[in-house]
């Protein structure tokens, strides 16, 4: 059995677009007719440029190879161009293709992916959700309203979630780390207070930031959040500044979580070695795929750290995340997105029940992708999957970050 053909579908989730502006799905077919699905979570170039990268990685390193030879194909892609170092775009392309290989292997054997990773360690995977506006909320006002977020949190907890994430701490800008505005610190504390009051001890608070602060700024913010006992302080400084992350970890009494923008064990290992994070958040469509992330999980286990696979993408990456999560001993939880488009795209094959997912014994990833639906929503925009803004932090007029789905501009 050899990898023979590749098809790439760039699909755009309808408004409000939970999960990003577009998702890059890959369909790999063997010479025996078995099809596997993967998803590439890489967004530093546009989708058409990414399509060319995926095609090149497949043709150069994978086409004609057995889908079983994961390690060989990884080493080819990782070493490509005389590098042998992490390359976010190349490894993002490889990650989605590698996920498809596991789907193929599982289908060929009639076994789920989790069974090929050491078996089922976690019968039920604990999931968390980002806080999204409820139907009656104003889409623009929601992101700066502690009261609306508290209402959304209570609704999520009523559905069984035991962990909820939110990120009111100000803008993600191209300027890199900055000192938070006092208004952002005050708003962040107000969010924590309102949400903690709404959910009590029924759920963990997951405080999201995305690398926008200096170490000193993150420490100031972290101290303001400590009274509300968040379970984690997510990526408080730029993810490649491991010494700064370690300084924050030493100064703030909230566990540090990071990893959605990192790829391969080469980028995760220094975090563990320097005590910079206790919770790793790999996104399997970027981190190197299922096998490489299984290695990352083993490194974390040896350092007493846990994994919480990240999801701001489509349901194919979600499926891969969940299969890994089902198989590892040091799982904390896995991010999930419940939207009609996510559900329809995989025909309801995976569902959250009382804040948990139980994967079936269905072969491969256990999903069937609705190709017609995916192709019926092509991406026509010119924005990237996610973008940082050009303007710096506004210390005079305040800041507003509208999550992953900005309100429509009138």
From TrEMBL:
<dbReference type="InterPro" id="IPR013341">
    <property type="entry name" value="Mandelate_racemase_N_dom"/>
</dbReference>
<dbReference type="InterPro" id="IPR036849">
    <property type="entry name" value="Enolase-like_C_sf"/>
</dbReference>
<dbReference type="InterPro" id="IPR034593">
    <property type="entry name" value="DgoD-like"/>
</dbReference>
<dbReference type="InterPro" id="IPR029065">
    <property type="entry name" value="Enolase_C-like"/>
</dbReference>
<feature type="domain" description="Mandelate racemase/muconate lactonizing enzyme C-terminal">
    <location>
        <begin position="146"/>
        <end position="255"/>
    </location>
</feature>
<dbReference type="InterPro" id="IPR013342">
    <property type="entry name" value="Mandelate_racemase_C"/>
</dbReference>
<protein>
    <submittedName>
        <fullName>Mandelate racemase/muconate lactonizing enzyme family protein</fullName>
    </submittedName>
</protein>
<dbReference type="Pfam" id="PF13378">
    <property type="entry name" value="MR_MLE_C"/>
</dbReference>
<dbReference type="Pfam" id="PF02746">
    <property type="entry name" value="MR_MLE_N"/>
</dbReference>
<dbReference type="GO" id="GO:0016829">
    <property type="term" value="F:lyase activity"/>
</dbReference>
<dbReference type="InterPro" id="IPR029017">
    <property type="entry name" value="Enolase-like_N"/>
</dbReference>
<keyword id="KW-0456">Lyase</keyword>
């Amino acid at each position: 059995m050899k990898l023979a053909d590749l098809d790439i579908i760039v699909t755009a989730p309808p408004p409000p677009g939970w999960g990003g502006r577009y998702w890059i799905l890959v369909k790999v077919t063997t010479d025996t007719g078995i099809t596997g699905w993967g998803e590439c979570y890489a967004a530093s170039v546009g989708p058409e440029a990414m399509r060319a990268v995926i095609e090149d990685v497949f043709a150069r390193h994978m086409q004609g190879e057995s889908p079983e030879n994961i390690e060989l194909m990884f080493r080819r892609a990782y070493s490509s161009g005389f590098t042998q170092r992490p390359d976010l775009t190349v490894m993002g392309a490889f990650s989605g293709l590698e996920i498809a290989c596991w789907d193929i292997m599982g289908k060929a054997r009639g076994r789920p992916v989790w069974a090929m990773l050491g078996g089922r360690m976690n019968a039920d995977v604990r999931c968390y959700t980002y806080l999204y506006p409820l139907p009656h909320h104003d889409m623009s006002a929601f992101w700066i309203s502690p009261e609306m977020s508290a209402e959304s949190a209570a609704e999520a907890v009523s559905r069984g979630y035991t962990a909820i994430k939110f990120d009111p701490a100000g803008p993600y800008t191209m300027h890199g780390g900055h000192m938070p505005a006092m208004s952002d610190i005050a708003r962040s504390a107000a969010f924590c207070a309102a949400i903690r009051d709404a959910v009590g001890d029924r759920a963990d608070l997951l405080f999201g930031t995305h690398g926008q602060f200096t170490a000193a700024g993150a420490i100031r913010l972290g101290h303001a959040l400590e009274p509300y006992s968040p379970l984690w302080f997510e990526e408080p400084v730029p993810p490649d500044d491991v010494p700064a992350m370690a300084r924050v970890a030493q100064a703030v009494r909230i566990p540090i979580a990071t990893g959605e923008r990192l790829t391969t064990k080469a980028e995760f290992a220094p975090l563990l070695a320097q005590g910079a994070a206790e919770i790793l958040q790999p996104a399997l469509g970027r981190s190197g795929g299922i096998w490489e992330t299984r290695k990352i999980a083993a490194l974390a286990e040896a350092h007493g750290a846990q994994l919480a696979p990240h999801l701001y993408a489509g349901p194919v990456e979600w499926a891969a995340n969940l299969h890994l999560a089902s198989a590892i001993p040091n799982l904390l939880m896995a991010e999930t997105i419940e939207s009609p488009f996510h559900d329809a795209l995989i025909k309801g094959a995976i569902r959250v029940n009382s804040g948990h997912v139980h994967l079936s014994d269905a072969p491969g990833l256990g999903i069937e992708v609705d190709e017609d639906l995916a192709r019926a929503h092509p991406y026509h925009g010119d924005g990237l999957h996610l973008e940082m803004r050009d303007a710096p932090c506004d210390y005079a007029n305040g800041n507003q970050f509208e999550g992953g789905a900005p309100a429509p501009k009138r």
